[in-house]
Amino acid sequence: MKPESLFASAAINIGLAMVVLTLFSVLRKQPPNAFIYFARCLSQHHHVHLDRSFTLLRFIPSFSWITRAFRVSEDEIIDTTGLDAVVIIRLFKFGIKFFVPCSVLGLVILLPVNYYTSQDVPSENSHSMDSYTISNISRGSDRLWVHFTCLWLISVYGLYLLYKEYNDILLLRTQQIRKFRHRPDQFTVLVREIPLCDDHKARGCCVDHFFSKHYQDTYQSYQMLYHLKDFEDLLAKSLATTIEDVKKRSVTRKRNRESLHFGEFREDSAKPVLHEEKLQELCHKICQIRGKNMLREKEFPVAFVTFKSRCAAALAAQSQQHSNPLLWITEMAPEPRDVLWENLLIPCRYLLLHKIGVYIAASLFTIFFAIPVTAVQGIAKFDNLKKWFPPAMAIELIPGLSSVVTGYLPSAILNGFIYVVPFGMLAMAKLAGCISRSKQEIKACNMFFYFLVGNVFFLSLLSGSLLDEIGKSVTHPKDFPGHLASAVSAQADFFMTYILTTGLSGFSLEILQSGLLIWDLVKSHTFGHGKKKEPYLYSLHYCRVIPMVSLAVLIGMIYAVVAPLLLPFLIVYFFLGYVVYINQIQNVYETVYETWGKYWPYVHHYILIAIVLMQITMIGLFGLKRKPAASFATIPLLLLTLMFNEYCKMRFLPTFDHCSIEDAKESDELDKKSGLMETNFENAINAYCPPCLRPVNFPAPGSSSTQPLISSILV
Q1: Cα–Cα distance measured from residue 609 to residue 457, given in angstroms and rounded to the nearest whole number
Q2: Residues 418-427: tens digit of each pLDDT
Q3: Beta-strand (E) ranges in 213-347?
Q4: Least confident among 38-47, 184-193, 423-432, 636-645
Q5: What does the DSSP assignment read for 515-550?
Q6: What is the pTM of this model?
Q7: Mean pLDDT across the stretch 24-37?
Q8: pLDDT computed for residue 481 by the predictor
């Protein structure tokens, strides 16, 4: 890629970001848009102070939200949205902390070393981007020892930051668990593969007998799961009838006020009575289905078992309950709002088939996606595009158009394709049989990250550079190492444009919420005209944000020594992402579950993969540059990194997977001192009642839920 193409991409992305952020700064001040830009605040009935008068100040851009984002503390984020949101912010902070020193090191030391030849003059390729990369260093040059030293410094600094962040998140997790001691999941264990009781032909009594016998002092109660599809249909029918009844009651009251005919009044007033009779009949059928005998026939081999203490629950969850490990499978229950009830009905023996199917589907999806990635690289390599598609030469007739096509268009198209991938991965993760939304999203997070590493990074590298060199390598096999070294560094300019597009354009469009703006405009002027507006409340997609940001970390680490010119772009990426997601977490997205930081071990793993790939790449490059001593001296660094990874697995990971008996005991003692122990475990008894068995609430006419929300909040 020519420097002109990189400048064109930077200009387009910077211009687009400035326009979008300015537009957002104006639109967020308009009261009708509060349902989009302050959805979380409105849903929690917080006051949003907006100027409703038609003044010039409403249309002057204000960037106070940026300075406010830097004033928000982690404690404030934890109190409002939880520790999972802090993981996102910590990931952006890690990028800032890591790449700022690396940028100083790269721009001050590595960039001059790459640019100047051994005679201290600019290289012959001074007008090419390759002159700023390691490919400009001649083979066997002692200057490669500068790169070797920087590699060690960057790697050790990265490992230090990883250890510090892991330890900090662990401390925050422990504090949050102790703070929210009332949560029912601390007292509850999920039990699967429950055998059938031979005497009573039921599983419920088997659960009660088993835990009463083996945990007689700490066992409290159990809640079975049932297959009540007919009940759910009946419940949906009853709710639909109730809603229709309420609507007709309001119509009847209106007619009573406006009608002058007594006969019409009698006819309308009889309708609610008829609906109430039908509703009572449906409720009677519900009670029949809830009967003991029928429930016993609908039992599934899954139950939530509640204990009188956290310590007992932790012991039960981490112990093998039966000599046959395929029976009485136990684990700590997820948070009640985190449970995926339909997936609990999948027998454990079928879960392996579900996982295999998901892996096959994800692999096929990844292979299929290789087509657009290869096409994108064909556009980026304009010289090759002209050979494959001669009409493309017409682009050169318009001045500057080829720079836009090769600099901005490939990364924009690639990001457009990538945008839909997380939703597909999330759907596949749901088919894997995850028992909770958090596990489902973590699985999708893993699949999406490896998808990005395979398709966006390695496939872009191969299809963009290495394949072009294979022909030369066949005719001149001795030159293959040099071609490979050029291939690795030649893609630095493409990844610069990718980071620019993902960061400047991507984060700007994220905060603008353009899709919701268009939808709200269409809805307000069509089928939603005159109706009460509700906040557009959505949860934060961790499976999209974490892998995308982790890929940026990976690209930055691999090119930190190879092409340090990329690092300043990454600093802009992480600063803008930090500001945008502080705003989104505080004002837009709702919290649908809280895992107390369980995402961080996966973030740690992704970053460690990046460090390992950086070291492996440099081992290969030192060898290709005929500096074998540097390659061999890098191997101990790689081994040190792998040993560090194993240590972190032993030191931190078990505490994220299980609750320690010590922490559980300390929480129990705190509850006993405050007199809350009995209250907390009693609250856990009813927390895991299946949705189909919960009481049906019929809204009464004139309920407060029908009152407008915005009028009491916006001033």
Answers
A1: 13
A2: 888 898 898 8
A3: 219-226, 299-307, 329-332
A4: 38-47
A5: HHHHHHHHHHHTTTTTSPP-----B--HHHHHHHHH
A6: 0.85
A7: 88
A8: 41
Averaged pLDDT, 542-559: 93
* Rounded Cα–Cα distance for residues 552 and 501 (Å): 12
Above 60 in pLDDT, residue 271? no
Per 3-state DSSP, the chain is made up of helix, strand and coil in percentages (nearest 5) of: 75, 5, 25
Q: Provide the 8-state DSSP code for 323.
A: S
* pLDDT above 70: residue 227: yes
107-135 burial, b at 16+ Cβ within 10 Å, e below that, comes to eebbbebbbbbeeeeebeeeebbbbbbbb
Listed in sequence order, the residues at least 6 apart from 603 whose beta carbon sits closer than 8 Å to its beta carbon are: 87, 90, 91, 546, 550
Of 113-122, 220-229, 323-332, 644-653, the range with the lowest mean pLDDT is 113-122
Cα–Cα dist 92/247, whole Å: 49
The CA distance from 58 to 51, in Å, is 7
Q: Give me the sign of the Cα torsion angle 296, 298, 303, 308.
A: negative
Token pair belonging to 344: 């609990």
Q: Which amino acid is at 645?
A: N
- The two most distant CA atoms of the chain are separated, in Å, by 107
- Nearest-CA neighbor of 622 among 114, 157, 147, 149? 147
Asked if residues 533 and 42 have their Cβ atoms less than 8 Å apart, the reply is: no
SS3 of residue 51 by DSSP: coil
H/E element holding 280? helix 262-289
Residues paired with 306 in a beta bridge: 188, 221
